[in-house]
Amino acid sequence: MPSIKDKLTPERAVGMTVNERLHLAGLIHDYDVAVGTRDIEAISTILKTVYLTDADIDAIIAFELRK
Hints:
Layout: H1 4-7, H2 10-13, H3 18-25, H4 28-36, H5 40-49, H6 54-66
Helix pairs in contact: 4-5, 5-6
């Protein structure tokens, strides 16, 4: 099975939405579970895996926790 690095590279991630990155990396389900349980550490780890910046991660977490 190819690793995430085979499917998603920082160069390939440029211009992709967060959902596109998560889907390509095979992490969309894990992300949904982390959001559903409000597991900030897991959300952060998953988003770092798909090459998001700390500022973007902070903004996404703040948005998700307001839901």
